């Protein structure tokens, strides 16, 4: 009898213990994990405006000026603006109260059309940009520019300007007026100023000398001169068969 009771008691213990042991993994399987998604940061929108003083400039002589204005809503943006010429970064400009200082574009930009782009990037702000196009014209020698101002003035022997000129009087007056160099008065003396260059390497602003006559080379096989009595200062084709081209100095042909 005692053995039966003991056996029954042992079985009861097993029956009672079993659900308790089995309940542990069941509880773990039914537990719920709740994950809260992080809120996305608000990205603000900027408005970039590239302001330019003019859309045409002359190489080596004039330059357009630019400044950049950036607004974020109604607020004035802070930080820096990257300015590009074409695809290349040119400058980084600092914003003060939403506006950069005015800066001049390079006078050395090559002839043709150039895209100027201002790009604003800042943490928490969507990238913003604006572009303008600048056309760069080929520069002209100061000597040539000065000489052309006197087209139409009459030839008069011995005259040195500004109302009338002879050939060497014209060249000496132009070089002095342009602030390049004081030339000798006569054509024979002007022959020995500077150095001789080949026709192939001649540039606008060089002197063209032939026996008894001097002129100024303007490019494209043309010259400007005071021809002879009865004529006026004019641009015309080079008529001399084998003239000498004389480079007075580098400033005379600079553009």
Explain how this protein is built:
The structure is a single chain. This protein has helices spanning 2-29, 142-148, 167-177, 187-190, 250-253, and strands spanning 44-52, 56-58, 65-72, 75-76, 80-85, 88-94, 103-104, 112-122, 125-137, 195-197, 207-210, 213-219, 222-225, 234-237, 244-247. The chain is α+β, with helices and mostly antiparallel strands. It folds into two domains: 44-137, Sandwich (Immunoglobulin-like), CATH 2.60.40.10; 142-253, endopeptidase fold (from Nostoc punctiforme) (Alpha-Beta Complex). The strands form two sheets. Strands 1, 2, 3, 4, 5, 6, 7, 8 and 9 form a nine-stranded mixed sheet that branches. The chain is rod-shaped, with a radius of gyration of 42 Å. Mean pLDDT is 89; it is low at 5-29.
Task: Spell out the blueprint of helices and strands.
Elements lengths: L1 H28 L14 E9 L3 E3 L6 E8 L2 E2 L3 E6 L2 E7 L8 E2 L7 E11 L2 E13 L4 H7 L18 H11 L9 H4 L4 E3 L9 E4 L2 E7 L2 E4 L8 E4 L6 E4 L2 H4 L2
Parallel strand pairs: 1-9, 2-9
Antiparallel strand pairs: 1-3, 3-4, 3-7, 5-6, 5-8, 8-9, 10-15, 11-12, 11-15, 12-13, 13-14
